[in-house]
Each structure stands twice: as C-alpha cells, then as structure tokens.
Amino acid sequence: MVIQRAVWVLFLWPYLLTCSLPLDCREDHGSFSRCPSISQEKLLDRVIQHAELIYRVSEESCSLFEEMFVPFPLQLQRNQAGYACITKTLPIPSSKSEIQQISDKWLLHSVLMLVQSWIEPLVYLQATLDRYDGAPDMLLNKTKWVSEKLISLEQGVVVLIKKMLNEGMTTTAYSEQGLLQFDGQPEMLESVMRDYTLLSCFKKDAHKMEILLKLLKCRQTDTYNCA
Amino acid sequence: MMKTSAEVNLLLLLLVFTLHVKGMRYSPPGKPALTRCRSPEKETFTCWWESGSDGGLPTTHALFYRKENSEAVYECPDYRTAGENSCFFNKNNTSIWVSYNITVVASNALGSTFSDPVDIDVVYIVKPNHPEMVTVTVLEDKGWPFLRVSWEPPHKADTRSGWITLIYELRVKLEEENDWEMHLAGQQKMFNIFSLRSGGTYLVQVRCKPDHGFWSEWSSTSYIKVPDYIQREKPMWVLITCFCAFIFLILTWLLHMNGHSLKDFILPPVPGPKIRGFDKQLLKNGKSDEIFSSLVVSGFPPTTSPNCEDLLVEYLEVYVPEEQELMEESKDLHDICLKSEGCTSDSDSGRGSCDSHTLLMDKFREAKEEKRQRDQEKSRTGTEDQRQQKDWEEEGLTYAYEDMVSPNISSGRVETWPSLFSPLPQYSSSRHSQKSSLEKAKKHCFSDSLFPPGSTSFSLDQGGQTTMEAIRSSNREFSLRIKQPHLLHSHTQARCQLQAHSEVNISSIGCKQALGGLRSPAPHSAEYVEVQRVNEENTVLLQPVESGHGHIDGCSQLPLGKDYSRVQGVDRYNRLLLKGEVPQEGDCLYDYQDMTGDGTENCYTSSSVPSIQKPTACIHTVIMGHDEMVLAENGYIDTLTARTLPNY
C-alpha cells in the first residue's frame, strides 16, 4: 500500500511542480499563458489597457450618476459638501514635472497604492447604489464591472512589480467586513453627494493610474525622449 | 496760517463735496466673473475673467487661488502672458488632479468686489491646439482616386509619452457645397477618403480632443483638386447608349408592323346607324314625318307581354328534299332576286343586313345541295308534276324569296311581322289583327292564283328577318326554310323575341290539294298550313287553310289531296320531313303531339293533349323540334317559328 502511494507520488511529481508554478505567473488579464513567454512590455501594455478601460467606464458612471441623482446647482461644486477624496493623503505626484522626477519603483508603488485603496470603497459604492430607487441597470453594471477590473489590475501591477523590481508583494485580502459603514438611514441628498464625491474621486484616481503607467511605459521604451 | 489751512479745508470740503456730488456715479467696482480657464497641454493653464462696471474709478483686478487641501492663498503669478484680464499658470504652478479654487477681485478707490469662486481641475479643462501639418494627397486605388489626409498633433501636446491621449476628427466638403462630411479618425494620424467626384475641389479640416476635455479648433483649410477620371466611365455609357438605341429600334419596328391593328384597338371604328329597311335618304330629306313613320313599328311594343322564350326563333327549315330542277331554278331565281336587290355596301362598317343577306344566300345554297342529295334518293313522280310544281315553285319562290328579301333590303318600307307567338287566345282574332299588317307583305309573297290572300295568314317573327324558301318536291314535300340569320343579332338584340337559338327544320308536305291545284293549269287552291300559335309548351299549332275559306268546319274541308300530316322522319340536318298520305274519312283532326313517325293519328277530340288549349276543331297540332317532323295537312306551312322543345 505505501509502495503504491510512493509510486503515485513519483509519477505525479512533475505535475505537482507544474501546478505550483503558475501561481505567481498567472496572467491577470484573462488569458492563461505560461510565465516565461509573457514579456514585460506586453504585460505593461495589458496593464495600461486595463487602466484606460477602467478610467473610461468610471467616467461614464460618474456622468450617469450626475445626470440622474445630483441636482443641477450642485453639479459644479463637487467638493462643496466638504467631502474630500479618500486618497488625498496618499503621496501621489500631482504634476508632470514631479512625475518625471520620481523613479520607476515609486511610480509602480504609487499605482499599487491607488489601486489597493479603491477596492473596498467601490464595493461599498455598489452596495449603496443598490439602495437607490430607480438606479439604472447600466450604472450598476458599470460600477460592478469597474470593481472587478480593479482587482484584476491590482494583480497585474503586483506581477509587474515582481518582474520589474523583483519584489514580492501580496495582494490585498478581500475582507467582507471592511469600511462598510451604514449610517442607518442617511439623508438622501447627503448620501447622493457623498456617492457623487466618491465617484468623482475614483474617476480622477483612475486617470492618475493611467497616466502613471503610460509614463512608465515611455520610460521603458524611450528613456531619453520622455519629456 | 489759519486762513490758509481754513482755505485748504474749505477747498478739500469743496472737493469732497463736488466729488460726492459727482460721486453719485462713482461706486465700488462691479462684480467680476471668471469666464473660462483652459489648458492646452495639461501642463499649464490660463484663466480669463470679465470685469464688471468699474464704478467710474480706475479699477484693478487681482486673482487669488487656493489649492485643494491647503489654506494658503496665492495670487496669480502672471497677468501679462495671456493678455488682458487673464492669468497664466506655468508648469511650476500647475498641479493636476488637484482642485483650484480661484477668485477674482476688482477693487477701486471706493472698494473692492469679489467674484464668485470657481473650482477647476486642470485635467478637465484641457483644450488642445489644432492639429498641425495637415497634408492631403490624391492617390489611386485600382484606377479610382482617393484622398489621403495626414496630420501631426499640436506640438505642445505630449502624446508621445502618453501624457495626453488625443483623438482626431476631420471634415470634408466640396467647394461648392454647404454640408461637411465628418469622419472620426480615432488616435490615428492618417485617414483615407473615397468616393470622390471627378474634377471636384475638396476642402479638408482636422481637429482633436483629449479623452477628457474639449475639442480643439479646426485646423486651417486644405484645398485639393481631384483629377478627372471620366474616361473610365465612357465605355459604359457607350454601351448603355447602344443598348437603348437597339431597344428603341425594335419597338419602332414592332409598332410599324402592328400599327394598323393597334390603331384599331385604340380607336375602334364607330359603327354607323343601321336600321333595317330604313332609308337614310329620309334623314337627308329632312322630313320628320316620313322618318318617324318609317320608324314606327306596328305591333311593337307588343300589346300583350309575350313570353320571351316563346318568341325565340332561330332557324326553321322546311326542306323539300327532291326536285333538283326546282333547286336549280330556284337558284336562278335566287340569283335574280339577289341581283335585283343588290347589296350595296357602304362605309358603314356595322352593316349587318348585307351580311345577313349573304348568309341567307348561303343557307339557300345549302338547302339546294341537300335537295340535290335527296333527289337522288327518291324517284321522281312525273314530269308533269314537276313542271307544275316548278311553275308553282317559281312563283312561290319568287314571292317567297321576295318576301324574304323585301323586309330586309327594300327601301322605304319596313315590314315588321307581328309576333307569331304572342299568346293570342284565338288565332282568328290574332289573325285579324295580323292580317292588316301582313296584307301588304303577303301581296308580295303569294299570287292571287296560288295563294288567296284571305286564306293565308302569313306571320313571321317580329323581327321580320325570317326568310323563307319554298322548295317543292315532286312528292309534295317541300321544305320551307325559315331562317333567322345569326348575323342580324346586332339589330335584334333589343328585342327578346328575336333571339335565335336553334334551327328547326320543318318539312311540310305539300298537301294534295296543292298538288291538285298544281295539276290543274291554274291551281287555285293552295293548301297550306297556317301556324296558329305556339302554346306554352312550345307547340306550334298549325291550322290547315282551305283555299279561300275558313277551316273551321273541319272535316268537310278535308283536303282531297294527300295529307301531309305525318312526320316521316328527321334528316340528318335536323329537318322535319313530312310525309304525305291519303287521309281517311272521318279523320278530321290530327294530333301530332307525339310524333314518332309511326303514323299514328289520333283524333283531336280523343287525344288528351294537355298542351292544346284551343278547343277548335281540326286543329293540327304541330310540334316543332329538332327531331320532329311536322306534318301539315294541307299545303305547306306558311310560317313556322319554333325553337327547340325541351321536352323532346
């Protein structure tokens, strides 16, 4: 009996090895391919595509939400209500010149920080949007899609960091009991403004991710001409 | 000193006073407003404002901004670069993804006014410059030209590093048109335009937009002229032209070939007026009385409503199968009559009387042929008889023919024959009524010697188109042919009585009295049967007519001659052949209801014929039908009109 199991282990040895390998080589963007084959450039391209898509969808979601729920006079003053973006504390460079001065490592880490900080609030946003009366399905679908893609983006950036910087990072553990705080039955307008601010901030941060990644790509391909 | 200070004070007060008076127009400056802020490349931006009323005093403006997450207020670093009433933020002062809170202050001697604050984020106010270096060239794709438009992004926008992503749009129009054709080119810097008009001049413009921001202005117009390429389309046009010409020629030829029939189809000839026996000269004479009198048809409309079906006469043929000579003679007479009358053809295309006339001739010839055949079968009795019969025949034919012809073509007179089948209760009464109208016609028909007018009643169908041919045979069989030519339908359709259907041949048997009359050089007794009427069962009631006398007595008036009251049979031309036989004593009435050729004779009184309604003695009932032979006791049947009897 033991001999049989030993034989099994001997035979299945290569399979065990191969099964363990793809964990950190798994392509985050939907296609499974063997790790050695995917190049850094291709990976970066895919990450950038992800970021572009996320930004576009978040822009559409924000416009939809603005049209449907935000009263017209309040549309122009996004921060009037005093809600600041949750990521304002993050040390993200805010000008091109600043961005040109930071290193690749710092770029990637900034991106990762942004992505990771938005995963949970998006889930929260989804829950609150469900509570709205007459929220269009398109809006709900978009926000849901965005939150899913954000997780994929995070994984891609982690792999990228590992490849480029040879640093091992861990993905955020998705916890159900996050920052979800329901204030009982908040006032409608207050809730609307809060969600509106959330969406606007996310839109801005998605754009940040896209720009940062693109600049990173430029540096990778043409170091000297990237202004 | 005090005086000067007082003066100064006074002056100041005066000044202030005047200023105050004037200063009713002076006021603190009006509220300025920020009109717009734009960033051309997402690295710098400019804000423009509008000043309100200056209050009459020199006013200065200042722009203050506050960055997000900071309470520090800064003033605009550059008021001049961007022009009047503007503030330019250079790269060092521009932060993206950061909201700016900008306020403009207008101040003068009397005060200052703050504008409404505006929050902007540089990322969202990007409006790039228009694309540069727009080039348009004409290229060829398999002989067909197309435009290739290429351009460069504005030199300030950093699209290479991905800092800005621009999408482009171009528009094209012909020089003489007003509508632009828009094309979205995406992120590419080149575009092809197809489907050009040869020889036209095109105008092309390009503009761009960041993925979040505003559209740029249109670039300067580029003109391009497309060369002519009509040469390529020429062979096609030549082919089309040839094909059309070919089709046209074929159509012309077809039209030419069928032109005449087509003309008749489109413009059918108009039939002229045609009334039988009506002389158009009357119309030309213009005498209305004559016209109307000639148009008057006596007996029409019928005083009693006739049964239309009863009046239907088509073809009644009484055929005398023998006597070839008679036929020949009759033929001569026929021709004579033909010539005498003549058929003047005119331009009236609808003239049917001519045609009917010719048809009658044809039928007559037919009868002659049949007669010839019959003659061959039967033997001839005697030449004397033939001669006599010939004589008799001649006259009879003449008059019969004349009578036949006269109502058709004779001018100045229209003979209308009263309906034979009018349900007159008494033949005698009808006879009277008919007599007067028929008198005239009879004169032509029968000579006094042969056909005493009084003893004959000659009634034809109302249409007056029945023709008679009397052909006597040596066996005293002769057939009268009364026809109604079908061609006369055009004139007779109005009258229901004149619908001819079938042909009925009635062979009448010349009665022995007639023969007897013929034997004598001057036959005086012409025996023939009068058609009395037709009852509702389409039975023609014939009445033998004695010469010059009534026939009511019956038995005493029996003809001495042969009795042609038996139907011999029907020949193959559907003609009744009457057989003559010697009558027996006591046989005064014959009922011929059931004619089967067996020669049974039933006394009228003893027969039970439901159809006979006239309880008059010596009424010979004659049934007309396709397959019936009618036997007339005396002479021959004057007029017979009948149609197919359904019950036979």
From TrEMBL, chain A:
This protein's GO CC annotations: extracellular space
Localization: Secreted
Protein's UniProt name: Somatolactin alpha
GO biological process: animal organ development; growth hormone receptor signaling pathway; positive regulation of growth; positive regulation of receptor signaling pathway via JAK-STAT; response to nutrient levels
SUPFAM superfamilies noted in UniProt: 4-helical cytokines
Superkingdom of this protein's organism: Eukaryota
PANTHER family listed in its UniProt record: SOMATOLACTIN ALPHA ISOFORM X1-RELATED, SOMATOTROPIN,PROLACTIN
Keywords, alphabetical: Disulfide bond, Glycoprotein, Hormone, Secreted, Signal
InterPro entries assigned: 4_helix_cytokine-like_core, Somatotropin/Prolactin, Somatotropin_CS
Signal sequence interval, chain numbering: 1-20
Organism field: Labrus bergylta (ballan wrasse)
Record-stated family: Belongs to the somatotropin/prolactin family.
Single GO MF descriptor: growth hormone activity
